[in-house]
Specification:
47% of the residues lie in helices and 20% in strands. It is α+β, with helices and mostly antiparallel strands. It folds into three domains: 4-127, Serine Threonine Protein Phosphatase 5, Tetratricopeptide repeat (Alpha Horseshoe), CATH 1.25.40; 130-197, Carboxypeptidase-like, regulatory domain (Immunoglobulin-like), CATH 2.60.40; 216-299. Strand 2 (141-145) and strand 3 form a beta hairpin.
């Protein structure tokens, strides 16, 4: 069995040559043939991701190393992968996560693993670096620290000693942040009151006024009136033209012209033409309001949607 101490040196010290031989296996069972392990595509990907995580840890990118090691762990759960994850979390001062990873390592590693005692001692040392934030909230909520959930409120959460900004999130409530400073092995009480997120209801409504459809007789009556008034106007117009022609052809041009009858006929013709035009426009409008096929008019439609007044992108 490989030495876990070599993996510790792999992540924590500049000299990491021993890490190249520490690769995950398909299973802890010794009865499984090695050729099946090599042919297993999950094993191949897990091994590749593990080595990539080792390379990132060697370069000092522990955050990237944790991502690769977690991906390897999902494919093939092996104690050595968990051990390296814990080492990286410890290097990032995420002592609470490191303790959790060490606990998972102890649950997965064989009972005769010689490094179990050293891991337990490391866990005790890290636990001494943790402080406790006792969060008292007005409603049950998740407690976030940086980009991760560290516990639930009301309740106690373990965090590395130092200055922190915790955030409480609950469905239907606005998130609340609070700064807190806690020393190692110290308990700090934080009280947070969450405010409900108001809901803004917006109503979009389109309404058409119901009306009784106009009978077709109104439309055709309008056409008849338009034609009649236009005909009367045409009659007086023709009369004015006829009188004008007679006046031009009178027997004695020396007599003074009599234009009163011509003007009167022209005025009457213009008046009837104007009335005819008004009736023509009114009849055109009536055409749009007339129910020629007898079908009922459509009723108005209303659309309702709601949107919460909260922070976008907040769960």
């Amino acid at each position: 069995m490989r030495s876990i101490a070599a993996l510790l040196l792999l992540v924590a010290l500049p000299s990491l040559a021993a890490a190249q031989e520490a690769v995950p296996e398909v299973s802890s069972s010794e009865s499984e043939p090695e050729d099946e392990q090599v042919e297993n595509p999950r094993f191949a990907e897990a091994r590749q991701r593990f080595l990539q995580g080792v390379a990132l840890a060697r370069a000092g990118n522990c955050a990237g190393a944790i991502a690769e090691l977690n991906a390897s762990l999902e494919l093939v759960p092996r104690p050595n992968t968990l051990y390296n994850i814990a080492q990286c979390q410890e290097s990032l001062h995420r002592y609470d996560l490191a303790v959790s990873s060490y606990e998972r390592y102890l649950a997965l590693a064989p009972e005769d693993e010689p490094e179990r005692a050293a891991v337990r001692a490391t866990m005790r040392s890290l636990a001494n670096l943790l402080g406790t934030i006792s969060v008292r909230s007005s409603t049950p909520a998740e407690v976030w620290l940086d980009d991760r959930v560290v516990g639930e409120a009301p309740g106690d959460v373990l965090v590395p000693g130092g200055h922190h900004v915790i955030e409480l999130r609950a469905s239907g409530y606005l998130p609340e942040q609070q700064e807190v400073e806690v020393a190692a092995q110290q308990t700090v009480v934080v009280e947070v009151t969450l405010r409900r997120a108001e809901e803004n209801v917006t109503i979009h409504q389109t309404t058409s006024v119901e009306r009784a459809p106009l009978p077709t007789g109104v439309f055709f009556g309008g056409i008849a009136v338009t034609v009649i008034t236009a005909g009367v106007g045409a009659y007086f117009g023709v009369t004015a033209l006829s009188l004008s022609d007679q006046e031009r052809t009178r027997p004695d041009p020396r007599l003074p012209p009599d234009t009163s009858a011509i003007s009167e006929s022209a005025v009457i013709a213009d008046a009837f033409f104007i009335v005819s035009g008004v009736f023509a426009v009114a009849t055109l409008i009536v055409a749009f309001l007339t129910d020629f096929d007898g079908e009922p008019q459509e009723s108005g439609e209303a659309a309702l949607r709601w949107s919460p007044l909260g922070l976008e992108g907040v769960f």
